[in-house]
Structures are given as C-alpha cells and as structure tokens.
Amino acid sequence: MNATGFVSRAQPWLVRAGTAVWVVLGMVLLAAAVRPAQGARKPAATPPRNESAVRTYVPDFEFRKGTEIVLVLVGAAFCGAQREPGFPQAVEEAKLRVQEQAKARGAQFRAIAVSLDWKTEEALAFLESFGAFDEIHVGSNWLNDGARRYIWADLPGEPVVPQVLVVEREIETEPAVQVRSERVIKRIAGAAPLITWVRAGAPM
Description:
Elements lengths: L2 H37 L26 E10 L11 H18 L3 E8 L4 H8 L7 E4 L6 H8 L10 E10 L5 E12 L1 H9 L5
Parallel strand pairs: 1-2, 2-3
Antiparallel strand pairs: 1-4, 4-5
C-alpha cells in the first residue's frame, strides 16, 4: 500500500482522534475553571448598620401648657473647655436623659442653646456639633439675650462657659402665653463636670 492510500484510509481515524483530544482538553479546562468557583466561599455579608445605636435628640415642636423642664447649654467657640474629648456627646446624652426624666414626671421637655460668639455665623457653626435644639440664641457675646436671661438677670449664675442649666417652669397659654415659677434645679459649669454628671445619669 502506497503512502497516499494509507493516508486516505487513516484520515477518518485521525479526525476522530483529534476531535477526542480537543473534547478531553476542553473538559479538563472546564473542570479546572469550575473547581475553584465551587470550592470558594461566599464573602461574608456585611451586617446592617444599627442606626439606633447612636441616639439623638429630636425636638417635637409641640405647643403645650403645664410643667416644662428645659435644658440650656451656654457656650462659645472662643472657650477651649468645650474641646474636652466627649463633651459634644455628653451634651447630646444630657438632653436625652433629662428628657426621659421629664417624661417620667409627666412634664414636657425643651432644649435651648446659647452661643456667645460675636458673629452669628460663628455661633451657629459652633452649635452644629451639639445636635438639635428647640431654640437657639446666638451672637453679641455676653450681651446675648440668652446670657442676660440665664446668667445676668432672670436666673443669675456664674459667667462661665460652657455650662448647662436644667430649669423647671410652668407654661400657661390662656388667655396669653405666660411663664411662671421658673427656677434652676441644676447648674453644671465646665466640660469635665458635665461629662461626669452625664455618666452618673444626669440626675436632676
């Protein structure tokens, strides 16, 4: 048998063998690609963030009569005491703890902030790190109307910043809005004493 005849008779077998080789090679490559994917572990799901872990005070903006407990923050950016680590968080926690105690007494609650910086924009920027308040007094340094009310005249105390007051008063709405029997039940001066007070539960 000459070479041409041999090639002609062997050609189908060569084609089949070549096809088989390619099929086997493809299966080997496929298995190699699939095996790591099957053995790989799924990445651990990121646990959802617990947004309620950090509590923040939310004003309710209710206009009601009766007993009211008010927490007042008096501070200023020009005073370095409020840079005490943990002080802004302590102010926020103080609002929440005093609010809880007010509700336990059947009283309503409000939070007021006074910033004694001369410029109102600087005073507002200073208060941003202390969370929400129902009412704010800003600007005019020690001539600030909040300073007059909570330090100089109505409810006099030491001219120290920062300080926090807890005030109890009676609100009347008929026939006109009036504030009666206003008194300071707690006054804490200085950042460190405030932090200590809050850690003790902010007792009134």
